[in-house]
Amino acid sequence: MEKNVSDAFFRDELQTLAANGQIDAFRGKFLDMHPYDQTAFFMELPEDIRLHIYTYLSPEEMAAIMEHIELDDIKPLVTEMDPRFAAMVIAEMATDDAVDILNELRKDVVVSLLTIMDDKNADEIKELLHYEEKTAGSIMTTEFVEIYQATTVSDAMQYLKAEAPEAETIYYLYVVDADKHLVGVLSLRDLIIADSDVKIADLMSDKVLSVSVAEDQEDVARMIRDYDFLALPVVDFQNHLLGIITVDDILDVMDEEASDDYSKLAGVSDVERPKDSALISAKKRLPWLIILLFLGMLTASLIGQFEEALEQVAVLAIFIPLLAGMAGNTGTQALAVAVRGLSTGDYGKQGKLKLMLREAATGLINGAVCGALLTVIVYFWKNDFYLGLLVGFSIMVTLVVATLAGALVPILMDKLNIDPAVASGPFITTINDIISIFIYFGLATAFMQYLV
Amino acid sequence: MEKNVSDAFFRDELQTLAANGQIDAFRGKFLDMHPYDQTAFFMELPEDIRLHIYTYLSPEEMAAIMEHIELDDIKPLVTEMDPRFAAMVIAEMATDDAVDILNELRKDVVVSLLTIMDDKNADEIKELLHYEEKTAGSIMTTEFVEIYQATTVSDAMQYLKAEAPEAETIYYLYVVDADKHLVGVLSLRDLIIADSDVKIADLMSDKVLSVSVAEDQEDVARMIRDYDFLALPVVDFQNHLLGIITVDDILDVMDEEASDDYSKLAGVSDVERPKDSALISAKKRLPWLIILLFLGMLTASLIGQFEEALEQVAVLAIFIPLLAGMAGNTGTQALAVAVRGLSTGDYGKQGKLKLMLREAATGLINGAVCGALLTVIVYFWKNDFYLGLLVGFSIMVTLVVATLAGALVPILMDKLNIDPAVASGPFITTINDIISIFIYFGLATAFMQYLV
């Protein structure tokens, strides 16, 4: 196997070369690695060696590294660079990545970097900077290949040769008219197979799928996944071609969205990173815990209402966590299924009503099975048939209501145009705690005469 | 905008053409759509019209549709086709998709389909059929472009023209020696820029990254995402080139893995589908609920041990769900952070110890804040300082232990080579229920003299 960054000996050797200023030897070994591995090595270095390396590499070489650095780590790096070098590095990056980086910096730093930068690059970046986060505009790049319908295949190939070093992808060619309207698309595969004197107009597909610049990035991801595209053109409302979104950016979007849904289900408000300190972790989780603490107080005061029943039949308390726990679990199951379905767009309009009916039936089946089981267990354990019946019947009613609640909340949120993933697990769990206690003590109070 | 499948009028028109046997008119409109849209239309049709369509389309045209059908829907379609047609359709598909479909069918059906199929395709498929699920081998395709080092650029371009219609991607060319060992890689981009008489050996990169055929598909996905590849070669243990994995398959893998993690966090054992009936849904969720029911009985019998304390101080019962709920929530938060970190490979070896220390500190901060808050609230509500202190102190200890448990369980599972995502939310929640009750009643019993 080749030497690489996961080899500690190789890493030390490289670091020594950098520290000793053996520029040629360092460059030879370093630039031989894939940019992703260069980045992994670079991020492990102490600041003083990083400062050396900025002087060993060209802005273009540094740009390749920057494109692989996680956004949360970007700020200190840009700050420690010479501003002119930083501006040149950012100018060399793909515009979409450059914009991502600038979005992490303070406004005045951005302004001064754009001022140092050459006008062409600065203008391209400025245009992308004002698109809203998580839209197609914010993840597109402007380095695409556009050609005219009258071009011949051989001219197009010549043009591609010239554009290849700069373009984000050369595997799709976008065909535009004189006013820059998107009129067609052509894959490099089609171009290669074609005869050299054929016109692009006769070769291209005029059924070109595109997304609007304001489209949600999650919808763009779904489209690229469904249609197996390597890139998708982005247009404005008059169908002018503005940029393209490539599949490698979509992989990052999917990762981000999956992490986001996952964190929300667990009630972690913001995506946490392994490097976060305990204080930052606590700050991200505390808001949820405090909200849940107050919701928990509601549960407590609800039980408080039934203190009299509890004093008469202390054994009732034994089953509180079991009931609340089962309600929370079944609600989270229903929630996860509904959120996942909503986010992959699997439901139609009718589908939501169907889903609710199915969840009601699912809750009833699960409730009946668990209820029967629990009745028998409690009867044999406590030798009290009525207590068994109470607990069993309570769990049945609870499971039906809790399952419905788990599905209903995300559907309602979706209707109100709120991201259904916000209806996190802990929230549903606490709601269902309350529901279960209400049902349990309600039934216990009603049938108290059989229990004492 | 172009007419498409989301237009109900267009859909009805197309269906009428198919039903009336107006083959040419139907083919004209139908084949004009993207295969994904063809599939969406096809899947909405009743069986009798589907049976017509099989006779209107060539196996190749039908194969394009089949590649977009979800695997769970495949079985009835293959069964309703004429077996010879089905074999021809599957032979026309990319081998990786063909294998996915055959894996859904009964063994005897697979054998008979492979017998009808021409030998070349049948052999290719048979070779892939025995790779284990979720490995690189199971998602790779064998339709790649391989060339020799001695080839010139112009010969390579000629070869590509011939291979383009069949190959899964022509954007990477893999260079092999006479024994089919993978020795280099070349992108079509590099080929296009190069002069026509240059040898491939002088142009290719010999630092070709590859994955072993037994590699986990999640690791392959991570590699393609990190390195921004469009495809990755798959080799055996002697570095023979066996196949390639393309980025479009990786999008599906990422989706599948994200759904899987998400479902497990919510305690849904298997990924559910919107079309599942209530009975199937219930069957998928019940195993979890029953396990949790028995774990809940543990909680109940634990409280039963403290029945005496409860009879003396019934007010203790009021705070059970609050404590259990908070323990469950904080555990799920810690769990989600740890599982996500483990699955994206963010932790090193040292990282896990660091993570545990951080989680302990996070638990302590959150516990102190929530504990102080709760002490004050309970004191003012119940006008009982000792009760407030008991509940507040209990929540503090509980949050520390529950947070640690949430992080520890997935780390232990990872050490034991079990997928950490199996440590689902409900499981951790129930463990933490038990921990919280033990702490709460333990403290209550110890300090009973201050409470009665």
From TrEMBL, chains A, B:
<dbReference type="InterPro" id="IPR006667">
    <property type="entry name" value="SLC41_membr_dom"/>
</dbReference>
<feature type="transmembrane region" description="Helical">
    <location>
        <begin position="360"/>
        <end position="381"/>
    </location>
</feature>
<feature type="transmembrane region" description="Helical">
    <location>
        <begin position="387"/>
        <end position="413"/>
    </location>
</feature>
<dbReference type="InterPro" id="IPR006668">
    <property type="entry name" value="Mg_transptr_MgtE_intracell_dom"/>
</dbReference>
<dbReference type="Pfam" id="PF03448">
    <property type="entry name" value="MgtE_N"/>
</dbReference>
<dbReference type="Pfam" id="PF01769">
    <property type="entry name" value="MgtE"/>
</dbReference>
<comment type="function">
    <text>Acts as a magnesium transporter.</text>
</comment>
<feature type="domain" description="CBS">
    <location>
        <begin position="140"/>
        <end position="203"/>
    </location>
</feature>
<keyword id="KW-0479">Metal-binding</keyword>
<keyword id="KW-1003">Cell membrane</keyword>
<dbReference type="GO" id="GO:0046872">
    <property type="term" value="F:metal ion binding"/>
</dbReference>
<dbReference type="Pfam" id="PF00571">
    <property type="entry name" value="CBS"/>
</dbReference>
<dbReference type="GO" id="GO:0005886">
    <property type="term" value="C:plasma membrane"/>
</dbReference>
<comment type="similarity">
    <text>Belongs to the SLC41A transporter family.</text>
</comment>
<protein>
    <recommendedName>
        <fullName>Magnesium transporter MgtE</fullName>
    </recommendedName>
</protein>
<feature type="transmembrane region" description="Helical">
    <location>
        <begin position="286"/>
        <end position="306"/>
    </location>
</feature>
<dbReference type="InterPro" id="IPR046342">
    <property type="entry name" value="CBS_dom_sf"/>
</dbReference>
<dbReference type="GO" id="GO:0015095">
    <property type="term" value="F:magnesium ion transmembrane transporter activity"/>
</dbReference>
<dbReference type="InterPro" id="IPR006669">
    <property type="entry name" value="MgtE_transporter"/>
</dbReference>
<keyword id="KW-0812">Transmembrane</keyword>
<keyword id="KW-1133">Transmembrane helix</keyword>
<feature type="domain" description="CBS">
    <location>
        <begin position="204"/>
        <end position="262"/>
    </location>
</feature>
<dbReference type="InterPro" id="IPR038076">
    <property type="entry name" value="MgtE_N_sf"/>
</dbReference>
<dbReference type="InterPro" id="IPR036739">
    <property type="entry name" value="SLC41_membr_dom_sf"/>
</dbReference>
<keyword id="KW-0813">Transport</keyword>
<keyword id="KW-0129">CBS domain</keyword>
<comment type="subunit">
    <text>Homodimer.</text>
</comment>
<keyword id="KW-0460">Magnesium</keyword>
<keyword id="KW-0472">Membrane</keyword>
<feature type="transmembrane region" description="Helical">
    <location>
        <begin position="312"/>
        <end position="339"/>
    </location>
</feature>
<dbReference type="InterPro" id="IPR000644">
    <property type="entry name" value="CBS_dom"/>
</dbReference>
